[in-house]
From TrEMBL:
The lineage of its organism: Eukaryota, Viridiplantae, Streptophyta, Embryophyta, Tracheophyta. The nitrogen atoms of the two glycine residues in the GGXR motif define the oxyanion hole, and stabilize the oxyanion that forms during the nucleophilic attack by the catalytic serine during substrate cleavage. A motif (GXSXG) lies at residues 61-65. Belongs to the patatin family. This is Patatin. Its EC number is 3.1.1.-. GO terms for molecular function: monoacylglycerol lipase activity; phospholipase activity. A motif (GXGXXG) lies at residues 23-28.
Length: 417
């Protein structure tokens, strides 16, 4: 069944579908692993041309999640109805380019580089971002936010305005000055403080001559987990009576189907306690072991609060089975860093994603996802099983929308006769 829509509008179906991807630098490999599996299941159901963008009304991403969002939703130059990247190609993309974005040397030169970076941290960002800017510009070109295959939402923070700036397809369609180059948005949302430089760019309304400037840093300062931001953007569209969305109350979340993908939390026994933290000064907070504790704690606190709010919301309305959050709460300390690009660490992140996908859900995982544990201490289900179930829900929803579009076309054709 063919359609001109990448994702048929939700007013033609029963659900409003959201995909959300956390920030986390090179740890974007972990959710990319889940996305590859999900897309393969959608292809099993609907054919080899099925893509993630065909099934979600909104894809939201912060920082590295923003880049993945763009890869999933930016039209290909060779086929405007298909994205420039399949989900299965995102992990290889990270493995190829991350060592150049965050260069990491070993041996004597490795220690020398560490000393240089420590000095650079005092006077500027750890990395200059030139390689990242180049590959993002090469990848996304002049594509604008409103040109994506499905609606996207990418949080950023404007240091000059001192407030969040949320880029979305919805805003870009109604406000030319928010229709930025997708490359600029992705560079900006990835500009983690102390790690990569802030990004400046301008947009122009060629009809009026008006301009707007942006001074952007990492969207993780706004929402490292952008699920609530995506839901809020949809709520605004419903309130504005957008033709794209069904006629429903703005706060009617019974229709929402949400998949939210995290980038991993450190194992319990390496988390710092008050006795250690009480003795820390500025350098310990900004750089210790493989990570920057202050930034790390801030970002994950933001993600956890969003987890809690969304889970409680879905539970309160009796729709917990329409929310899937995948987050590994037990990754090794060496994998916590957002910029450690040794071959061992990158391959380790792939393994973390694959292991979590196929590992039986723990008692805590079952509780978070409202799955009844069987037997006593474990659940026979895996996240692969849950993603397979959600793939079927997404497939059925898309088929329903396409059928309704075809039915409307027939009714219109008969009426014109």
């Amino acid at each position: 069944m063919e359609s001109n829509y990448a994702c048929p509008p939700p007013r033609k179906g029963n659900m409003i579908t959201i995909l959300s991807i956390d920030g986390g630098g090179v740890k974007g490999i972990i959710p990319a692993t889940f996305l590859s599996f999900l897309e393969s299941k959608l292809q099993d159901l609907d054919g080899s041309n099925a893509r993630i963008a065909n099934y979600f009304d909104v894809i939201a991403g912060t920082s590295t999640g923003g880049l993945i969002t763009a890869m999933l939703a930016t039209p290909s130059l060779s086929n405007a109805k298909q994205p420039c990247y399949e989900a299965k190609d995102i992990v290889p993309f990270y493995l190829k380019h991350c060592p150049h974005i965050f260069p990491c040397r070993t041996g004597f030169f490795g220690w020398l580089c560490k000393i240089v970076r420590i000095i650079k941290l005092i006077i500027g960002p750890k990395y200059n971002g030139k390689y990242l800017h180049k590959i993002i510009n090469d990848l996304l070109g002049e594509t604008r936010v409103k040109e994506t295959l499905t609606n996207i939402v990418i949080p950023t923070y404007d240091v000059k305005c001192v407030k969040p700036t949320i880029f979305s397809t919805f805003k870009a369609r109604s406000n030319t000055l928010m229709d930025a180059r997708l490359a600029d948005v992705c560079i900006g949302t990835s500009a983690a403080p102390t790690v990569l430089p802030a990004h400046y760019f301008e947009t122009v309304d060629y009809h009026t001559g008006a301009t707007r400037s942006f001074n952007i840093i990492d969207g993780g300062l706004v929402a490292n987990n952008p699920t609530l931001v995506a839901m809020s953007e949809i709520t605004k569209q419903i309130r504005l009576r957008s033709k794209e969305f069904p006629e429903t109350k703005p706060l009617d979340y019974h229709r929402y189907l949400v998949i939210s993908l995290g980038t991993g939390l450190p194992e319990q026994d390496i988390k710092f306690d008050a006795l250690h933290v009480a003795k820390w000064g500025i350098f310990q907070w900004l750089g210790r072991h493989y990570t920057m504790p202050l930034l790390h704690m801030f970002l994950h606190a933001s993600s956890d609060m969003t987890d809690s709010h969304v889970a409680n919301l879905f539970k309160s309305i009796g729709c917990s089975d329409q929310l899937l959050r995948i987050q590994d709460h037990d990754i090794p300390i060496a994998s916590v860093s957002a910029d450690l690009t040794t071959e061992k660490n990158l391959e380790g992140l792939v393994t973390i994603g694959e292991n979590l996908l196929h590992r039986p859900l723990s008692k805590d995982d079952c509780k978070i996802n409202h799955v009844r544990p069987v037997p006593k201490d474990s659940c026979t289900l895996t996240y692969a099983d849950l993603l397979t179930r959600f793939a079927k829900l997404l497939s059925d929803e898309r088929k329903l929308r396409l059928q309704n579009i075809e039915l409307d076309a027939r009714v219109l054709a008969n009426h014109e006769r």
